[in-house]
Write a structure and sequence with these properties.
By secondary structure, the protein is mainly alpha-helical. The protein is built from 37 helices and no strands. Keywords: Repeat.
Length: about 625
């Protein structure tokens, strides 16, 4: 111990870092001895001699992850230099304590200590992680004022990376072209930024441009290029990148790249190549197996997903939360409840349920899809952590299983517990409100949608809002919402037309349909069903025949059984029974029963017993099928 003190003391006296660095490397491996040395330094009063010794000790604490001790030591410093501040800020940033880093930087500025380039680089990293746009732009302005971009490439790269993490690709491009000295790290930050934002095509374009400008890609560049190919499912280009990686000898013993290639091939559906990559790994790892499982899941190959799951466990690997999620989704698809229950037990025994809310949500989803809604509800109540997804899954499943009141109950609880419903939850609740006529609850959802400024932005949600009011027979409100939409799609038009049909305003149905033809989108299968139904009720045989004809001849919609049934009803109501019979013959026997009942009703009203007997016998035969 005295020898260590002597080395550090010599470092203080000579102000040379060589011996101190050797000391620091030793202390980094032995925090207990480092703490003892700290006590002796305090006892001997060495901390006051120079910030150098304090900074060395603080580095030891930071490298060991002992940030509380590092901060305690920092607060004891009789004098701090820029290195002291920067060391602790960097330590906070590296260990994910970003708020503490921001606060310490504010304190540094308040105490009049000017940050150096490395301090600013650390803070740019913090701003990137925290999405602290105001502070990030303030730092950018400070860097420009100091003229540091012209001389410090590392700082320029950090600035580029910050904007990339924000998804501000225009700013990324601008900063990139401002930098006088660009190196491989600069290009890597640029390509990674585009890749992270899902701009795979642009990332690959930059990858080519970088090579054209004479920069040789390294493993980090190739990793981004492979991820870009995964993002846009570009199998051919991904294979070309793979070939280049092998040619440059980078792949050997580089499992991170091999994992990314496995993921790329799996996402592109090239499962033979993905399996070959998996086999080539120097050591099998859970990330590659999980990538293969995710690929199978993406392509609906649920049985292969579960086979992978069994294989990785036979190899002695422990599934992570993402692995379990893929396996549970496969169980949901196959309704493999027994396998799902085993996975549930394993997740609980490993204490993973509280670590990732998505895992809990997927378990709830699996039980729902396997027909065990009660078990799903029980599990939901036991979840240590719920997120918006878990609430939404339960609301959605209650909705699909016609438990409307339960769905609304969960929706209310979700908001009471401070969760903001997402678009899927809002869509499900609107559907429930329409099905049970809960217009007041629908009004609440309308307010929520308006507050989130989603009206008109999501067409499916806007159409569902119109549909909800229409099904609740609140047509004035449905029309009001419809009229305020910036653009009305076929779903919103059809919802409005259906609403008028449901309340018996069949003349308004045809008027609205005429407006749709003139200024709206092309009608769909459902639109024509509603219009033909209205024609039948109004007795508009000629108009009905025209609509039936143009549906296929002009709009290219092949009539289905429901359209034929509407025409059977239309002809039958107007006494044109021969035409009704001819239309009945167009309907497949297995789908003919509703049309038979409609025609029987017409025969009864017209007292046409001959046709009625034939249709009745036909209906009896169909019912027996």
């Amino acid at each position: 111990m005295r020898g260590l003190l002597k080395v550090i003391f010599e470092g203080i006296c000579t102000a040379k870092g060589t011996s101190a660095n050797r000391t620091f490397c030793f202390l980094q491996r032995d925090i207990e001895r480092g703490c003892k040395l700290h006590s002796i330094i305090l006892k001997w009063g060495l901390l006051e001699r120079s910030p150098f010794i304090g900074n060395t000790l603080m580095s030891m604490y930071i490298k060991c992850g002992a940030l509380v001790q590092a901060r305690g030591l920092f607060d004891q410093f009789p004098a701090r230099d820029v290195a002291s501040w920067t060391l602790l800020i960097s330590g906070y940033a590296d260990h994910g304590h970003v708020q503490e880093a921001l606060q310490l930087f504010e304190k540094m500025q308040h105490e009049g200590e000017a940050p150096n380039a490395f301090t600013l680089s650390c803070m740019l990293k913090v701003c990137g992680l925290t999405q602290t746009a105001d502070k990030g732009r303030e730092l950018h302005a400070l860097i420009l004022r100091k003229g540091l971009l012209m001389t410090d490439t590392v700082l320029g790269n950090a600035l580029l990376d910050m904007y990339a993490k924000w998804g501000a690709l225009t700013r990324v491009h601008h900063v990139f072209h401002e930098l006088p000295n660009r190196n491989l790290v600069t290009w890597n930050a640029l390509i990674a930024g585009y890749c992270q934002q899902g701009e795979g095509e642009a990332a690959l374009h930059l990858f080519r441009q970088m090579k054209e400008e004479g920069f040789a890609p390294d493993s980090i560049t190739f990793l981004s290029a492979v991820k870009a190919c995964s993002c846009i499912e570009a199998l051919k280009r991904g294979s070309e990148v793979h070939t280049e990686i092998v040619r440059r000898g980078i792949l050997e013993n580089h499992d991170v790249l091999a994992n990314a290639l496995t993921d790329m091939y799996a996402r592109c559906g090239a499962f033979t190549m993905a399996q070959d990559m998996l086999k080539s790994l120097s050591t099998k790892n859970i990330i590659a197996w999980t990538a293969l499982m995710a690929g199978y899941s993406q392509f609906g190959r649920s049985e292969d997903t579960l086979c992978c799951f069994e294989s990785l466990r036979q190899e002695g690997l422990y599934p992570n939360t993402v692995t379990y999620i893929s396996a549970l989704n496969a169980c949901a698809s196959l309704k493999a409840i027994d396998v799902g229950k085993k996975i549930h037990g394993e997740v609980v025994s490993r204490g993973l349920l509280g670590m990732d809310p998505t895992l809990g949500s997927t378990l709830v989803y699996m039980y729902c899809k396997c027909g065990e809604l009660a078990k799903a509800q029980e599990l939901f109540e036991e979840l240590p952590a719920r997120d918006v997804v878990s609430w939404t899954v339960l609301i959605m499943e209650c909705c699909e299983n016609n438990h409307g009141e339960k769905a609304l109950g969960y929706f209310d609880r979700m908001r009471c517990e401070g969760f903001s419903p997402d678009e899927v939850a809002l869509l499900c609740v609107l559907k429930v409100c329409g099905s049970i006529g809960a217009v007041e609850k629908g009004d609440e959802v309308y307010v929520e949608i308006a507050r989130k400024n989603l009206i008109g932005k999501l067409s499916i949600l806007s159409s569902a809002l119109v549909d909800m009011y229409a099904k609740c027979h609140a047509l004035a409100k449905a029309q009001e919402v419809f009229d305020m939409l910036p653009s009305q799609d076929v779903s919103s038009w059809t919802a409005l037309i259906s609403g008028y049909c449901q309340i018996g305003q069949h003349d308004v149905v045809l008027q609205t349909f005429s407006k749709m033809i003139l200024r709206g989108p092309e009608p769909n299968v459902i639109t024509f069903m509603v219009v033909l139904s209205a024609c039948g009720i109004l007795g508009l045989v000629h108009e009905g025949q025209i609509y039936y004809h143009v549906m296929s001849s002009y709009y290219g919609i092949i009539p289905i059984s429901q359209h034929h049934t509407c025409m059977v009803n239309l002809f039958g109501r107007e006494g044109q029974l021969e035409k009704a019979m001819a239309m009945l013959e167009k309907i497949p026997p297995s789908e003919r029963l509703p049309a038979c009942f409609a025609l029987l009703n017409s025969c009864k009203n017209l007292k046409s017993m001959k046709i009625a007997r034939f249709v009745f016998k036909n209906a009896i035969d169909l019912d027996a099928m």
